[in-house]
């Protein structure tokens, strides 16, 4: 008897770094955000997740996931929600066409690999869930649009919905209770602003102390400043950021990025008890950006920090000399930097 066929699909998904930050959920089960956010997708040459999904009627047991070579728990509610939705879409195709193989009934084996530290504030869950959802969607030949897959990836990890697109991506928080309007869309492709670059400074590759999921719920529950951020600060930043991207206005892009990062970390500090993601090396990166901009006499660099100490510095290619040069000088010459910070090569946007 012929061996049972193994069905297979592989995909990669990129990391995205928000310039207007997602922080806070209005529905923790569906991962519905309290505010919209906007991110820039980094090149997969530097940071990406590669996921292969297979299924076969010869497989026995439950679905499984291998992450960076080690077995990983797949029974969590978020992963289960993604797989359930993808299976039910496949099931609908099979119900409509009896000739299709019954992939939805077969156990899934997922093998996933990051080329960067997991859970170190480098958006590994974003690339991870985006790759998982797209690999299974491809395996099941769903032909769904990225914005529809973003609804599924969002349930894995909020920021994952943005990693299904390249370039400049908005996640609209939406207002519906079912979350069907809480989805990502591309604001502009990378080719719209090809000079944009991101320098990722890995200050620490250790796992972060407070997970985003629990940190943001503590902020929602205890920070008064957070209400102001959601009601007034983020809507203003979203409008200004979309206008800055449309006009390729780097000074405005940079100002909004830095202010939004500061606002997010201020809300973390206003959480009770306070959450501190940035450390002394992060603060030295802020001062370095200020010094670079002062020396240039205009804004040529912008910092942003997620739920960890690592810095992402945005700049335009034409200014890579003063920006990257300054940071490499710091990395080489300063105690603390030399030991703690390891830079990824600067990344283009894809
Ligand atoms: C962002 N972060 O917009 C913000 C900025 C961290 C700071 O999205 O609970 O891992 O899985 O929905 O997506 C990190 O939060 O949280 C995040 P869950 P997620 O990129």
Beta-strand residue percentage: 15-25%
Count the domains. Answer: 2
Strand adjacency order, main sheet: 1-6-9-7-8
Overall CATH architecture of the largest domain: 2-Layer Sandwich
Shape by Cα distribution: globular
CATH topology name of the largest domain, in short, is Ribosomal Protein S5, domain 2
What count of helical segments does DSSP give? 9
Q: What radius of gyration results from the CA coordinates?
A: 21 Å
End-to-end span in angstroms?
A: 46 Å
Instruction: Please estimate the helix content.
Output: 25-40%
The small-molecule ligands in this entry are: ligand 2P0
Name the CATH class of the largest domain: Alpha Beta
- Indicate the structural class: alpha+beta
Flag low-confidence runs: none
Mean pLDDT: 93
What is the number of strand segments?
16
Written as H for each helix and E for each strand, in order along the chain, the element string is EEEEEEEEHEHHEEEHHHHEEHHEE
Report the major sheet.
Answer: 5 strands, mixed
Catalytic activity: (R)-5-diphosphomevalonate + ATP = isopentenyl diphosphate + ADP + phosphate + CO2
Domain Diphosphomevalonate decarboxylase-like N-terminal: 13-183
EC number: 4.1.1.33
Pfam family, one: MVD-like_N
């Amino acid at each position: 008897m012929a061996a049972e066929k193994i069905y297979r699909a592989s995909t990669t998904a990129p990391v995205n770094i928000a310039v207007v930050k997602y922080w806070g959920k209005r529905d923790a089960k569906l991962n519905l955000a309290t505010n919209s956010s906007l991110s820039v997708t980094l090149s997969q040459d530097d940071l990406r997740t590669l996921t292969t999904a297979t299924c076969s009627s010869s497989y026995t047991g439950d679905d499984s996931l291998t992450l960076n070579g080690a077995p990983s728990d797949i029974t969590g509610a978020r992963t289960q929600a993604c797989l359930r939705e993808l299976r039910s879409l496949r099931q609908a195709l099979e119900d409509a066409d009896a000739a299709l193989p019954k992939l939805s009934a077969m156990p899934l084996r997922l093998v996933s690999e990051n080329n960067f530290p997991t859970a170190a504030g480098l958006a590994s869950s974003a690339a991870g869930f985006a790759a998982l959802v797209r690999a299974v969607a491809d395996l099941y030949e769903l032909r769904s649009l990225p914005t529809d897959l973003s609804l599924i990836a969002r349930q894995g990890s909020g920021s994952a919905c943005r990693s299904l697109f390249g370039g400049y991506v908005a996640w609209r928080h939406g207002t519906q209770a079912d979350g069907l309007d809480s989805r990502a869309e591309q604001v502009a492709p990378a080719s719209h602003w090809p000079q944009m670059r991101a320098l990722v400074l890995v200050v620490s590759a250790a796992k972060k102390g407070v997970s985003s999921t629990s940190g943001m719920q503590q902020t929602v529950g205890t920070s008064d400043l957070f209400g102001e951020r959601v009601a007034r600060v983020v809507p203003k930043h979203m409008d200004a950021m979309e206008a800055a991207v449309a006009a390729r206005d780097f000074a405005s892009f940079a100002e909004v990025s830095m202010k939004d990062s500061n606002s997010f970390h201020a809300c973390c500090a206003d959480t009770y008890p306070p959450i501190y993601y940035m450390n002394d090396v992060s603060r030295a990166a802020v001062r370095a950006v200020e010094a670079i901009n002062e020396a240039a006499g205009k804004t040529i660099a912008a910092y942003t920090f997620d739920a960890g100490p690592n810095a992402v510095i945005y700049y335009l290619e034409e200014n890579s000399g003063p920006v990257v040069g300054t940071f490499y000088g710091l990395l080489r010459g300063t105690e603390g930097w030399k030991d703690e910070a390891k830079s990824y090569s600067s990344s283009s946007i894809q």
